Fold this sequence. Notes:
This protein is mainly alpha-helical.
Amino acid sequence: MTDVALLLLAVGAAAVVVLLVAVLTVRTVGDALGARRRRARAAVLPVLLEVLDGEDVVAPRRRHLRTAMADTAADLTHKLRGSDRERLAVWLTEQGVREAAQRRMRSPWAPHRARAIEAYLAATGGTDPEPVVAMLRDRHPRVRAAAVGSLGGCGAASAVPALVAAVGSRRTRVSPSAVAMAVVHAAPTSAAALAPAWRSSDPAVLAMAVDVVGWLGLLDGRAQVEDLLRTSPDAQVRDRAADALRRLGDPRSVPVLEQALARVPAGDPRAAGLDRALATVRAGAG
């Protein structure tokens, strides 16, 4: 073996060793940081529980504990309702969590922005969602997904039009199924909240909207759903519209369902969905 070959072999072996050391170092540091975060969360959880019990509690001062407090509160607030959620939100705002979360939402790091969204909503109880609505246009998909989930989780019905519009965005698109779930959790009482969808020609947006109308029983959206069943060129949108009409169960939908069924060729598997919808709606008419 020549000296050059031996040198190349030695360099290759050294590179492998350096790579292994780097991997082990990253893993060790990551494990240490994870353990530190878990200890911090365990330390601040009793503080938050005392707040919910109505105790006069002072927030920790150390920076990593305050960050852990905000993140733990963000996880906890999804399990709270009514006065408990409001009490926690008021206390977090008094402790400066709202302002700190707004600063973190401007962080250059996407994970920090995503966690800040949840902390902000915990500190506001979902009553002022506009700063989070703006994050639906964030450049990073993880942040946009966090905004969608958090807006739905806090029941921000006022954010529904923005959520729907985000589905149709070309530059900062979000998952239609995630938005549908968020809108269902927010539970708007009128299909008017879905107005951006009715103006769209995107099949994914329209299918999401008719699903929401059916799941929430928004009867004032019946006309839009019927129109899509009649006129949409997309077969999936028509199928979802038929299923939404089945869920609504309004007898006034019988004629449009009959017309849609008449247009389906004999033996087409799509006829089954229309038959099922017709049977349900006719049963309601009786």
